[in-house]
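JOB MANIFEST
job_type = single_chain_structure
chain_count = 1
residues = 185
[input]
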Amino acid sequence: MKIAYVFFNDITWLDFVGIYDPVSRLKKLDYLPGLSWDFCAYTLSVADHYGLSFKPQFIDTTLAGYDVLIVPGGYGTRTLAQDKGFIQWLKTAEKVPLKTSICTGSLLLGAAGFLKDKKATTHFSEYEVLGQFCREVSHDRIVDDGDVITAGAVTSSIDLGLYLCEKWAGKAAAEDIRKRMDYRG
């Protein structure tokens, strides 16, 4: 299984790290030894609202060859949802079997057309905006609607990471990872 993590400017890094930590443990603990991931961006460099930057591995390359797309949220999502170039790049993930988002990352999935006829969630302050992209807005922390899974505000990224651990490796694996993280959520 191969994951594409999507990075962009004005990202909320906890949205990324919260899901990355439990999911990466699937590989480290041999629950999914073949698991791999790439850090993908549309621009050469990415930083959060305060300047903390990460260097993506792949810049403006197709997202088509992945099994899972993970789109964090952040302040940048509001602008990027209107950025035709970025949305066209995101649309290269159209055939990716599972698309996920944390917080306002769902606005990007929606702008790319991936939430059409879907139930989804986002940060509580953006429910109204999300409504223009999906069939139904949910206030739940995790919403699994088949090939799209969305998570609410920032700390739900940990919940989504553990949810995916259970979905991919079973309840015992997810519980082991949760305990190792000392997560009590």
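[summary]
The chain has a mean pLDDT of 98.
The longest strand covers residues 2-7.
exit_status = 0
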